[in-house]
Design brief:
The two termini are 45 Å apart. Helix 7 packs parallel to helix 8, helix 9 runs antiparallel to helix 10 and helix 9 runs antiparallel to helix 13. This protein is α/β, with parallel strands linked by helices. Strand 3 and strand 4 form a beta hairpin. The chain has 15 helices and 25 strands. It is 24% helix and 25% strand.
Length: 567
């Protein structure tokens, strides 16, 4: 047994309450180690000394290096004391607690040595947001999605709608009325939430350099247009999520312009990071986002800045009824601010949904006190390496996804925003060499993976686009793909995603030979996706309820089959 591979921690992703009495625990060990059996010895904290329960744990998840023994503790009394009993292949019994790995169990030292799940205070339990759990998201770049039928403000438009050469200083005329008019289309797709990139006043097409946080850019309409969009979406049971940019503002924002004019005498001087008496464009003597002079970085450690930005969120929740926010460059903003922000917003709407932008592990942000979810770029990385780059085989693909599942608590995994595309990256259709079969196979994985799948506008019709700005072309409403056979598969996947088992079920990810499989389980029922991206033909096993790109009983490359009970 490899002792140095064994890991467990109280009050962490390895040990956490899932409701007011139940706790999940995980024990990490070396993959395929010589361990014969793992038990957890446990009871309610104050009863442990008198009586101990013994529950056997099983390996329910594995990644490249580790196996994870996972189980649940629940005797109806909140708060547990426990240690692990590990029986090695040679029959030796070890005990693992806060003091390490020992060979003699000492119940009298339990209070000093045992792991614990403390009393599960409701505010600390990470549970799915019931208003958003399982919904399919649809990301919209407002300037390029749809133009309202009665649009009158057209004088600024200087780009053809269907051009293949978009630019961030060119405008095609998309607006909020256009989005509102397309809500029935989105509802028919099966979309449950729309995430819009910024809509505030700005000189750019992308609007990530904000001049005024309390206005809608006149290109898109006005605050009344936003209210009409939100109200109509809610009638169709579609949530609206706005993009907020609190890491930085625009150089032209009235706050920063006050600092440019008055320097140290500006009441907003400490709202930014300025080195010298005044910020200078030529000298670049102020902190920015990625060295972009147009985007000076806000000092979110400043309580006045925190209050101002909280009032922005409160304004759109209270006065316009939006349901949540996606937070741009959220990983560069202080933890303290996000705690204040979440607390303030929940006082307005307890069900507000907060999605952070972070491209790697986000565990330090993902508790009940900061973010509820994150744009799950690591899911994209796995799909790129499996479907596009051929760096992963089925086993490696599954191992990576399992590693990511074990990076977070169960409640967090159920709310992750899983994506193949966004406004920040080359479109996935380009990454797979315009292979619709590969695109659909990856999309099937996204629909089956735990969390909330997100389409980027046009994914459903295989829109292409290299890196920014080419990934921000206008939506091709005249595309022949709407009538294509592959689009029908997209619709089938979206319809399948409406089943409760894919919205709320438990998940198991594992390789079956050269097939990658994702199984969802709910109330004793199972639904399994098997994907072939091996480059070789694979045989179907059993009788699938749905297949794509299969020839008789043979799965071709970039194909998939679904097994389980029909809806």
């Amino acid at each position: 047994m490899e002792k140095c591979a064994i890991l467990h921690q109280s009050d962490s992703r390895f040990s956490f309450p899932v409701n007011e009495t139940k706790a999940q625990i995980r024990l990490r060990v070396k993959r395929n180690d010589t361990i014969k059996r793992v038990n957890v010895i446990w009871n309610t904290c104050h009863k442990f000394y008198l009586n101990q329960n013994i529950t056997q744990l099983n390996v329910k998840c594995s990644d490249e290096l580790f196996d994870y023994y996972i189980g649940e503790l629940d005797n109806g009394c909140p708060g547990y004391s426990y240690l692990f009993e590990i029986i090695d292949g040679d029959g030796t019994t070890y005990y693992y607690n806060e003091s390490g790995i020992i060979t003699v169990k000492n119940i009298r030292e339990a209070f000093k040595d045992n792991f614990t799940v403390v009393f599960p205070n409701k505010d600390d339990i990470v549970v799915p947001n019931k208003q958003f759990e399982g919904r399919v998201f649809y990301q919209i770049f407002p300037e390029r999605f749809a133009r309202g039928a009665d649009k009158k403000n057209t004088g600024y438009i200087n780009m053809e709608w269907n051009t293949d050469e978009p630019a961030n200083d060119k405008f095609a005329g998309g607006d909020l009325d256009g989005i509102r008019e397309k809500l029935p289309y989105l509802k028919k797709l099966g979309i449950g939430a729309v995430y819009m990139t910024p809509i505030h006043q700005s000189v750019s097409a992308h609007k990530y350099d904000i001049d005024d946080y309390f206005s809608v850019d006149k290109m898109f309409g006005d605050l009344n247009s936003l209210k009409a969009l939100v109200d109509e979406a809610h009638k169709l049971d579609i949530k609206i999520v706005m993009d907020l940019v609190f890491n930085h503002s625009s150089f032209y924002n009235v706050l920063f312009q006050d600092v440019v004019k008055y320097g140290r005498n500006s009441k907003y001087y400490d709202w930014y990071f300025v080195y010298g008496d005044k910020p200078s464009w030529d000298e670049g003597n102020y902190n920015t986002f990625c060295d972009v002079k147009m985007m000076p970085k806000l000092n979110t450690n400043n309580p006045e800045v925190q209050d101002y930005l909280c009032r922005v969120g409160e304004f759109y929740l209270k006065d316009y009824g939006v349901d949540g926010f996606r937070l741009d460059v959220a990983f560069d903003v202080s933890h303290k601010f996000w705690r204040v922000f979440k607390y303030r917003l929940q006082k307005v709407n307890p069900d507000v949904f907060i999605i952070g932008e972070d491209w790697q592990n986000s565990e330090s942000f993902l508790g009940n006190d900061q973010w509820d979810s994150v744009m799950n770029y690591p899911f994209l990385y796995a799909c790129q390496r499996y479907f596009a780059e051929e760096r992963y085989n089925a086993q490696q693909f599954c191992d990576y996804l399992n590693m990511r599942l074990m990076s977070y608590k169960d409640g967090t995994n159920r709310m992750m925003l899983n994506l193949l595309d966004s406004h920040d990256i080359e479109r996935f259709f380009n990454s797979v060499g315009f292979d619709k079969n590969a695109m659909l196979s990856a999309m099937a994985c996204m629909m089956f993976y735990q969390g909330c799948p997100m389409l980027y506008y046009g994914d459903e019709i295989f829109m292409d686009g290299k890196q920014d700005p080419y990934n921000r072309k206008c939506m091709r409403w005249d595309s022949a793909e709407f009538d294509g056979a592959e689009h029908k598969v997209v619709l089938d996947l979206l319809a399948m995603r409406q089943r409760d088992i894919l919205k709320k079920g438990d998940i198991t990810v594992c390789a079956d030979g050269e097939l990658a499989t994702i199984t969802r389980t709910l109330e004793g029922k199972q639904l399994t996706l098997a994907v072939n991206s091996s480059g070789k033909k694979q045989f179907l096993t059993g009788t699938p309820i749905y297949t794509f790109n299969c020839d008789g009983n043979t799965m071709l490359n970039n194909s998939f089959a679904v097994y389980g009970q029909k809806a």
